[in-house]
Design a protein that fits this description.
This protein is an alpha/beta fold. It has two domains: 163 residues, VC0802-like; 209 residues, Rossmann fold, CATH 3.40.50. It contains 13 helices and 15 strands.
Amino acid sequence: MEKIILIKYGELTTKKANRNLFINILTQNIKNSLKNYKIKLTKNRVRMFIEIENDNELEEIIEKLKKIFGIHSIVICYKTDNNIENIKNNVLEITKNIDFKTFKVITKRSNKNFPIKSMDFNNIIGGLLLKNKQNIKVDVHNPEYTLKIEIRENNTYIYSKEIEASGGYPIGVAGKGILMLSGGIDSPVAGYMAMKRGIKLECLYFESPPHTSPQALNKVKKLVEILSEYQPDIKLHIINFTNIQENIYKNINPNYMITIMRRMMYRIADKIRENNKALIIINGESVGQVASQTLNSMYVINNVTTTPIIRPVACLDKIEIIEIAKKINTYETSILPYEDCCTIFLPKHPIINPKLEKCLEYEKLLDYNQLIEEAITNTQTIKIEKNKKFNF
């Protein structure tokens, strides 16, 4: 009897012709995440199996697997052959030191050559446990202990508990997107939700020194480092936005400053997307949360690009977004009190229903094409790796 890790795909099983593509990408993502461990990985269309050389590394490996999108659940199970007596003996060995008062057995027999049907095998194994353990009884509705047996083509797998993983699609199956990462609560959550749908991220941050501090940049680097638990080695593109922002401050009606600033950001994001062969732009906008996120503002700001803009948290309220931020461990970093360029020069009364015609009129006061070109030319790009520490 051998202890191994069994991976269940979950949502991937709904795929038909493309299932192998999804599974192959998931396999590569797992290998990349576990590259420092000695493992043997095998797969088929419904399950994946990981054999580990060192049992002491089991918990570490489980923690890494829990953060790989495309995995629905993780099972620590015992592998044996399909010999009935061997299965019985292994069941007794596995359960001998487990205390429970009520139990049930669930058998899945995908190998139809196995001579006993699933329900009949449930009864055989249930009777075996009743005979060999004291003071237990069957409870099919609310058991303390559930023994699961999967009888497959060449082997049988015996287990009890499933560990919930991240689900979703493997990162990379949907292509690449540019995440506009502000350093607040919402945009890291949006990045996490995009990755869950199979989108590979590169991040874009606008800094405005000396108005924004090095600590604000390090805060964003830390957020990317946390996201890299789900996608190793994320690129972060850093745009110096100072000259653009100061020109807006000097030349634009204060009520329209935020709208014009966001339009400039979208133009830059689209260029960065194009230069890095990404397909979409992603951001953390939530409908109605601030002046630039009313539907009318979104329409006017979005007007500068035809590239699809994905807003994963658009219809979540702040409490829902915070819950996800806490779950993925970005919240405590996001609330650190270092201003980003979206909060400096903030007018008292930013317009919530901007007019496109007004924006076009105001933008004539700026040589914004040259300003944008200068900012993009001076882009700083770094790769953020897991477990990299940043000081504040």
